[in-house]
Amino acid sequence: MKKNVIAALTVILILIAGTVIYTNMKASANLSEDAIGDMLEERYDGEVKEIRTGNEQEEDIYQVELAAREGTYYIVVLAETGEILEMELLEHNEDGEGKDRQTLTVDEISERVLDSVDGDATILEVEQREEEGRTIYHVTVDQEGGTGTFELDAVSGEVLLYTQEEDEPEQQEPISEDEAIKIALREFQGEVDDVDLEQKDGRLVYDIEIENDDADVEADIIIDAYTGEVISVTFDN
C-alpha cells in the first residue's frame, strides 16, 4: 500500500515538473514586456501606460495601452513575434490640431499604412467616408498571414482601428480517378472492375476493385483521395 502511494506521488511530481518546464520554455520564447513596449513607443512615438499578458486562440499575447499624440490606443501584440493583431483608438486627443489642414491624399494614406505593416504588403482598396462628421479612410491590405483593415483619420492620418483576418487554408483538390487507378495497379496487377469515390470513416477515399483472372484473385484497394496514400489492400479468392 505504502509503495503504491509513493509511486502515485512520484508520477504526480513528474507531471507537475513537466508542466512547469514546458510553461517556462514557452514563456522564454516570447518577447519580453520591455521589448514590446520599446517597439511600440518607437513606432508610434508614444508612451506605454499598461501591458497585460493574455491568451487568444492558444497564442500568448500582450494587451497594451499606449498614449500617443493622437490619443490613447489599445493594441494586441503576438508575444512570440511582436506582430500587431489589433489596434484601436480608445480616446482621441481633442486639441484642435489638424482642423484647418487639408485631407491627406490616397498616396499619403497608403504610404502611412504600408509603413505600419510588418513585412511585405499590398494595398487592395482605399475608400474615403464621412462618419459622425469626421472624414475617415478605410484601407484594406494584403499582408503576410491574411488581410488587414485600417481605419485612419483623413486629416491627421492617425490609425483609429486595425484588424487582421487570417487567410483560410486553400481547399485541397482530390487526385483524379486515373491517378488513383495508377496507384492501385502498382499495388496489384489486373483489370479494374470498379472505382468509387466515397466517404469512409470521415475520410474521402477511392475504393478500387481489380480482378486478376490468371490468379483468380480480386483485390479491393482503398486510397486516400487527397494524398494518394494506400490505406488498405484486401484480397478475395
TrEMBL record:
<dbReference type="Pfam" id="PF03413">
    <property type="entry name" value="PepSY"/>
</dbReference>
<dbReference type="InterPro" id="IPR025711">
    <property type="entry name" value="PepSY"/>
</dbReference>
<feature type="domain" description="PepSY">
    <location>
        <begin position="174"/>
        <end position="233"/>
    </location>
</feature>
<protein>
    <recommendedName>
        <fullName>PepSY domain-containing protein</fullName>
    </recommendedName>
</protein>
<feature type="domain" description="PepSY">
    <location>
        <begin position="104"/>
        <end position="160"/>
    </location>
</feature>
